[in-house]
Amino acid sequence: MEYAPHILWVKSSPSSYRDEYGRTVVTSDGEWRKVSACRCDDNQQTEIRTPSGEWYRPKYKIVAPRDKEIEPGMTVRATNSDGTVRGSGEAKAVTRTNFLDYEVIWI
Predict the structure, then answer these.
(1) 3-class DSSP state for residue 88?
(2) What is the CA angle 99-104-106, rounded to 5?
(3) Is 6 in a helix, a strand, or coil?
(4) CB 104 within 8 A of CB 62
(5) Which of 35, 49, 94, 98 might form a disulfide with 8, Cβ 3.0–4.6 angstroms?
(6) Of residues 14, 2, 92, the one with CA closest to residue 46
């Protein structure tokens, strides 16, 4: 990608364990991990259909180099180079291109 002024982050799953009574105890909220450079655009005109079949109007469209680990349902965010958050939320749909090496993440 030639124009990628933002940074893409993905939140890892929270770590947890079961106590002696079988209850789940969450030890952390998950860590933010830097994935790649990206471009985050405001997008409130397009409606998409999620894999579950519901219609959704995303607030942001993130275009980034292809990464096989980002799936719908994961929490992602795009930040400016100074660290301020440009867009954040749950990835509703991830579209990967066939021949070009990038993906579009709708949040």
Answers:
(1) strand
(2) 155
(3) strand
(4) yes
(5) 35
(6) 92
Please tell me the number of Cα atoms within 13 Å of 103 on its side-chain side. 19
- Burial class for 24, CB neighbours closer than 10 Å (0-12, 13-18, 19+): exposed
**Which pair of tokens denotes residue 69?**
């680990």
Do 94 and 67 meet the contact criterion of CB atoms below 8 Å apart?
no
Would you state the pLDDT for residue 51?
73
pLDDT of residue 1: 61
- The β-bridge relationship of strands 6-11 and 75-79 is antiparallel
> In this structure, are residues 85 and 40 in contact, taking their beta carbons and an 8 Å threshold?
no
pLDDT value at position 56? 80
Q: Are 79 and 7 in contact (CB under 8 A)?
A: yes
Instruction: Give CA 53 to chain center in angstroms.
Output: 19
Distance CA 7, CA 77 (A): 8
Consecutive 10-residue averages of pLDDT for the chain (107 residues): 85 78 77 90 79 83 85 90 90 83 88
